[in-house]
Amino acid sequence: MTRAPLPRPVRRATTGAIAAAVGVLFAVAPAPAAESEVTHSFLAFGKTTCRVDETGESTPVYPASTRDGYELPDGTLVLTLSRSRSHPGGAVVEVAPGGAETVLWEGTQSEVNGAQPTDAGTVVLTEAGERPRLLEVDREGTVLVEFPLVCQTENHHLQTRMARKLADGTYLVPHLLDFAVVQYDAEGRVLKRFDTTLPGDENRSVHTWPFTAIRHGDGRTLVCCTNGNRVMDFDADGNVVWTLSNEDLPGPWLQDPCGGQVLPNGNVVVTSYAAGRRNAKAPKLFEVTPDKEVVWTYRDGRKVGIHHFQILTNDGERLAGPPMK
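User: That's the sequence. What structure does it adopt?
Assistant: C-alpha cells below.
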C-alpha cells in the first residue's frame, strides 16, 4: 500500500535582532580554570545556546533550546530547535549574522533531530515519529531527497540523532535503540550497518546507543555512544579499531557522551551531556589524542548539559574546512 506523503511544512521568515532577548534569558557562565596550553573557542548547543571563547567566556547566541547547530564561514547559524510551544515538532532555523531569522523547516512529527548544511546549500535533517524519515531540502523548503528510516517506532525520542550526508552522496544515520549506525543511499537503500554492540552489552541497561557518527580519514567512522558511555571507531569494513571508555580517562568523564568532533589533527573532542549533573568534577567537553592523552578540557560549573557543539578555533586559528561533527 502506498503511503500518502507527510504534510509539507509551513515556512515563515522573521527579521530582527535577537541579542536583547538572548541576554535576558541566559546568564554568562564562569570561565573554567586553564588546564593545558591548548585553547579552543566553540559553539554549545543544548538548553542554552552560546558561544564560548578561548578564555572560557560565554556569550548567548539564541534564546531557545537547540539540539544541533553549525556556524557557516560567513557567521550564519543553522540551528536545530527542540520541540516547544512555538515549534511542536521541532524546527530548523537560519540566523544571519545581523540577527535575521528564517525558518527553513517546520517539523511535522515528534522531533527534528539534527540538521546539517551541505556545501551545495541544502540541509539534511531527520524527523522522528510514527514514520521516521530523512530529508534533504533546499533553502526554500523544497524536498529534494526523502526516504523512510529503518528503525524501531515504539520510542520516537530514541529513533535517531545526528544524520550526516557524506562526500559520496550517501547518508550516515545513528539509530539509538537499534544499536547501529546505518549508511543509506539517496533511495533509502541500506548500504552498510555498523553494529555498536560490544561484549557485555547483552544487558540493555548498559547497551551502547549510537548518537553521533562521523566519517573521517580513510573511510573510518567514529561513533559516540551515550548509554554505554563509549566512543568507538570503525574501519571501512565495519571492524572496531579504537575505543575510548572511562577506563582510559582520569575519571568517569564519559557520562552520556552525545556530540563529538574529529579535529584536523586527528584528535577527538567529546561532550558528556550529563557531566555537571551526575559528577560536578567531570568536564563538559574534553579532547584526546589517538593515544588517548587528554590535552584539553572545559568545565563551567553549571548543571546544564551540552548536547552537541562545534569547535571553531584552535589556539586562535579558525579550523579549516567543514567541521567533522
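Residues 19-25 form the longest helix (7 residues).
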